Structure formats: structure tokens, C-alpha cells
Amino acid sequence: MARKKRKGSSASTSGKAGASAKPLSFSRRQWIIGSLGAVGAVGGASALQAWDTRTKEEHDLTAIGQGTPVVVQVHDRSCPTCRRLKGVMGSVMSDRTDVLYRVADLASQEGGELGRKYNAPKVTLLFFDASGRHQYTHTGLQTAEQLTDLIDNVVGQMENSAS
User: 63 is in which domain, residue-wise?
Assistant: First the structure.
């Protein structure tokens, strides 16, 4: 049975020796869209790397006892109140240099062990002095202003007792 030649098609020579390949050509629109996609991918990767670095630092509990007071939030990712506290704490702690903020994720081995060691349920803040001694525990959600006052008072007391 003979094949019919489709309208508008031509015989292909791409598989035969000596055939020359047609160079790829892109329209200006295709080039711009491709370039923007590449820039977006690089920007997205950079943002993801920054988020990953920040998250690793935030969950690094080895900062306790390293010379700076630390506030540790005992956190459960599935708890809406914990997520709200984390958001408020993030904004309260963003400009502070006198005390570090860390998160003990109860789903992780290290976070779970810390929570059990201090009998701390979710939605709890544990305050450690510069030497790593547990000084204070606070449980419950508060406003940014209340948390700022709490942190100022507890860190101030820790500094006064150290001197």
C-alpha cells in the first residue's frame, strides 16, 4: 500500500549522510520568555537557599550555652497556635542582638528531647542564660508588645544575676 504525501510536507533528508541541520531560531518573544524563566529559576533558587540557611540556623539548638542568652520556642508544626507564636516571635526577635531565638521542633529528635527534658508542651518559650542554664519558662500566646516586655524583663534579670 502506497503512502500518500501530506499536503505541505516534504521529504526529510535529516537521516541521510551529507544532510545539513537547520539552525535553531528563536523569536524575540521566545528569547525574552526563556531569559525571564532562567532569571526566575536562579532567583527562586537563591531565595530557597536563603530560606534553608535561615531555617537551619533557627533550629540550631547548639547555640544554647555559647555565650549569648537564647529564647527557645517549643514548636509543633501542626499546631496553629504554635505557628502564630512563631510568626510573632520572628517579628519581635528580628532586630535583637542581645538574645538569640531558636525553635525546638517537637517532630525532630533534638527538639523532642529538649521539650521532654524541660517538660515543655507546645506553645512554650524556654529562656537560657549565656552559660546555657535554664532560667525561665513561659507558656501561651501573647501579643508582640507583651512578648517584647517579657523578653526584656527575663533577659534583664539574667544579666543582673550574672553580674
Answer: 58-162
